[in-house]
Write a structure and sequence with these properties.
The complex is a heterodimer of chains A (576) and B (172). Helices cover 35% and strands 16% of the residues of chain A. Chain A has 22 helices and 20 strands. The chains are: A alpha/beta (576), B alpha+beta (172). The structure holds thiamine diphosphate and magnesium ion (MG).
Chain lengths: 576, 172
């Protein structure tokens, strides 16, 4: 067998059923093997970034490793954003790139880039295969590393001569031998006991949980723990869905655009039990102001996360599912106390709200509220990045893990559409909705063609405010409305300084997204008024294939609540 | 407290492993004062000694991040630890005037520095010892006029058997 055949055989043995990718000179030998492979589906995207996000969406929605295959040089560099996105959200993908022949490495050969060097800081591990004899081991290790411990992207760079090289006596390894890689599983019993004791004495305990719960498949354990202890819980963007939005103990997402109850609870708690989170600055605000009154316990599989941003009193390294089980066994049942009452009071006193002008204009939040009526608990919602992402996180009604996918850590505009496509390919019987902005949709809009031609039934919703809304919001609130380069409607006739839409704005907004959808052979609908919202959602979501639904929403709507950058969580703006 | 730490990283001898270690430190904004890597008695294992000057919290983070590398087998911060032999090596070129030469040679004898090349206008010498001894030697010969020197950076060896990775990696 040659390297290319070994690769495909290895992928099959790893259970790969789908590859997202794009061909090129040095990967022809591998594509040639795929050409006559029946059990792996290949999805040709329109851009390598799309392929990487699609593999990521596949991984996030299933928990399985997503795979993409691309060529060297520009193909490889086009995957960088996707790899970094997967890294920051701990999503397991394996990116296989072609490379120039080993003899040409280092000569600035045609389409040579140093993939190992480029990806070093943005992947969990990476490989350059210099000898076909190493290939079986490397494939085995790559998949093992990607999916175990704290999951993450792994890159395998395969020179074309290695893909062509023959290997006698090929056998695929059954096990890996990685003396330097031993992901933790069980938490230290003494530490778990210490946490259980701290809980017994705490008056105001709070759970703060994130993506680690979903990666570890620990949702049930978390709910069991909450059941037994009635501890209120705040859930990060990455963890949304692990606790149903209507669970009585759920206080919502915390942080910069978090719910008031969630942030107030973080400020006031006396015992913070953090599980599978990393104390991101978008959640903590200035670190020295965060949960100052609390004893902090942190459960995480990655020891490097513990104590990285916030001082931890009870560190527990381990797999969230295992450690939560240990904790459930050790904790005393707890019933609701005045702290629970207070958190519930906050929830009631500070509901999500937005101002409706009373006219027929469309509040973006309204579109999502209406969308909730058209989707079910099984539907997968994928967002892009910006205001619409925060509104989705706040207003969507998630009840299950792996049903709300969003680029959290890197905040990658352009993630939504291809990730939704990957999720739809992985879950053919599930409704997949992508909620995007008019900015973000254009960052990987080429994948509409991929969806249309392959009949991948992604339902794309664009909340069109003709602004790079999230940046405009900052300019609005903190930069004196100096709207520098955030207006997507801006034309050459516009005055140099613009502080917002006026009667003189150019009449045209480009591109006409409905026509773009139609040009791609898919249905497109548009709602310009509140009255049209339901109609468009109804028609759009009833389409069998992919569809784009565009909503012209209030241009200058802001996301609230908000904590300004650099301010503590106690300092929330509620909007009007 | 910000101070110098000497960290010994035992890694698998894989492609680009030195770049992984040094890249990790620069990526996270830590300054490396010195770094050396060399093969060991075990052909699969490579040892990297690095010196960084950082606060205690940063050192803790550095050690955890180094441990996180798939190729890392063990990380030891040997600062303030007994039972470690720490050494450094220096080659140094001094300008010497006729009248200073005897004095200098006397000093070299005291420090056990070896002359390598002695010429009419300069002397090249080598010296191995603790980093402190090397610092002191540089200080002492500076008045003669240093033309150039190169230090190896620190490297070290434990006098006893080191614990295996898992024991210090997971911290509990
Ligand atoms: C690739 C990329 N470039 C720039 C940014 C910075 N950024 C964050 S949100 C945002 C605006 C997004 O605009 P749009 O997609 O229209 O969404 P909206 O905020 O209007 O809902 C920008 C430019 C980013 N997150 N990602
Ligand atoms: Mg917008």
């Amino acid at each position: 067998m040659n390297g290319a055949e070994i690769l495909i055989d290895g992928l099959k043995r790893e259970g790969v059923d789908t590859i997202f990718g794009y061909p090129g000179g040095v990967v022809i030998p591998i594509f040639d093997v795929l050409y006559s492979t029946k059990d792996i589906k290949f999805l040709l995207t329109r851009h390598e970034q799309g392929a990487t996000h699609a593999a990521d969406g596949y991984a996030r929605s299933t928990g399985k490793v997503g795979v993409c295959l691309i060529t060297s040089g520009p193909g490889a560099t086009n995957t960088i954003t996707g790899i970094a996105t997967a890294k920051l959200d701990s999503s397991p993908i394996v990116v296989i790139s072609g490379q120039v022949a080993t003899g040409n490495i280092g000569t600035d050969a045609f389409q040579e880039t140093d993939m190992v060097g480029l990806t070093r800081s943005i992947c969990k591990h990476n490989y350059l295969v210099k000898d076909v004899g190493d290939l079986p081991r490397i494939i085995k290790e790559a998949f093992y590393i990607a999916r175990t411990g704290r999951p993450g992207p792994v890159s395998i760079d395969i020179p074309v001569d290695v893909a062509n090289a023959k290997l006698k006596n090929y056998s695929y390894p059954e096990t890996v031998s990685l003396p330097g890689y031993k992901p933790a599983n069980k938490g230290n019993n003494g530490q778990v006991k210490k946490l259980a004791d701290a809980l017994a004495h705490a008056q105001k305990p709070l759970l703060y949980t994130g993506g680690g719960i979903i990666s570890a498949g620990a949702t049930d354990k978390l709910l069991q723990l909450i059941d037994k202890t009635q501890i209120p819980v705040v859930v990060t963007l990455m963890g949304l869905g692990s606790v149903p939005f209507d669970h009585p103990c759920f206080l919502g997402m915390p942080g910069m655009h978090g719910r008031v109850a969630a942030n107030k609870a973080l400020v006031d708690c006396d015992l913070l039990i953090a599980v599978g989170v990393r104390f991101d600055d978008r959640i903590t605000g200035p670190r020295h102001t965060f949960a100052t009154q609390a004893t902090v316990a942190h459960i995480d599989i990655d020891p490097a996360e513990i104590g990285k941003n916030v001082k931890t009193d009870i560190p527990i390294v381990g797999d969230a599912k295992t450690v939560l089980q240990q904790l459930i066994e050790k904790v005393n049942p707890r019933s609701k106390n005045s702290w629970n009452e207070r958190t519930e009071f906050w929830k009631e006193k500070y509901p999500l709200s937005y101002k409706n002008n009373g006219n027929d204009s469309v509040n973006p939040q309204y579109v999502i509220e209406r969308l909730n009526e058209f989707v079910n608990d099984d539907s997968i919602i994928v967002t892009d990045v910006g205001q619409h992402q925060m509104w989705s996180a706040l207003y969507c009604q998630y009840r299950h893990p792996r049903k709300f996918l969003s680029s959290g850590g890197l905040g990658t505009m352009g993630f939504g559409l291809p990730a939704a496509m990957g999720a739809a390919v992985a879950n053919p019987d599930t409704q997949v909705v992508c909620i995007s902005g008019d900015g973000g949709i254009q960052m990987n809009i080429q994948e509409l063609a991929t969806c249309a031609i392959n009949r991948i039934p992604v339902k794309v919703i664009v909340l069109n405010n003709a602004f790079l809304g999230m940046v405009r919001q900052w300019q609005d609130l903190f930069w004196d409305k100096r709207y520098a380069q955030v207006c997507l409607q801006r034309g050459t006739d516009c005055p140099d300084e613009c502080h917002g839409p006026s009667g003189n704005c150019p009449p045209q907004y480009l591109p006409d997204l409905v026509k773009v959808a139609e040009a791609n052979g898919m249905a497109g609908y548009r709602a310009k008024t509140k009255a049209e919202v339901d109609e468009v959602l109804k028609k759009g979501l009833a389409e069998e294939g992919p569809v784009l639904m565009e909503f012209f929403v209030n241009r200058e709507e802001n996301v609230f609540p908000m904590v300004s950058a650099g301010k503590p969580l106690s300092d929330m703006m509620m909007g009007d | 407290m910000v101070e110098k730490h000497t960290i010994i990283v035992t890694v698998l001898n894989s492609i680009g492993v030195l770049a992984r270690v040094s890249g990790l430190l620069s990526q996270r904004g830590y300054n490396i004062e010195s770094i050396i890597g060399a093969p060991t008695e075990d052909p699969n294992v490579y040892k990297i000694s690095l010196v960084v000057e950082e606060s205690d919290e940063h050192i803790e983070q550095i050690i955890k991040q180094l441990n996180k590398l798939i190729d890392t087998v063990r990380v030891m911060d040997i600062s303030h630890k007994d039972n470690y032999i720490v050494r450094e090596y220096i080659i140094l070129k001094l300008e010497v005037k006729e009248k200073n030469r005897t004095d200098l040679f006397h000093l070299m004898q005291v420090f056990k520095a070896n002359p390598i090349d002695v010429a009419t206008d300069h002397v090249i010498m080598e010296l191995a010892g603790t980093p402190r001894k090397i610092d002191r030697f540089i200080e002492m010969v500076r008045p003669y006029g240093i033309q150039e020197y190169i230090r190896s950076g620190e490297f070290a060896m434990a006098e006893y058997q080191l614990p295996k990775k898992g024991e210090n990696k997971n911290g509990d």
